[in-house]
Amino acid sequence: MMPTLAMYKQAVNTAFEVVGLERKVELTLAVVEKVKEDPGFERFTLLFDGPSDVFLPQQTLPLYHADLGELDIFVSPIGPTANGYRYEAIFHMAI
After folding, report:
1. Are 46 and 83 in contact (CB under 8 A)?
2. Are 79 and 47 in contact (CB under 8 A)?
3. Which residues, at least 6 apart from 53, have a Cβ–Cβ distance to it below 8 Å?
4. pLDDT tens digit string along 27-52?
5. In whole angstroms, how far apart are CA 45 and each of 16, 67, 91?
């Protein structure tokens, strides 16, 4: 089952490990934001903060979270931050 908006909100400020890389890379879920009302759908955006020494191009990432389990999430880099890079994932799911 794909996690819901509410489940992601509970995971703010926790780590999602990128699976399958040569070294351990974690993305921290920084922001969960509902996009707009759309009857029958749940629309939201996730913003992740990653380290400064690893840049991840736009792709589907295999991620692991302690509570949410294994997930494949399509993320796009949206720019540098003071401490690394920020990534975005957008969801539009039927409910």
Report:
1. no
2. no
3. 84
4. 999 999 999 888 889 999 999 999 99
5. 16, 19, 6
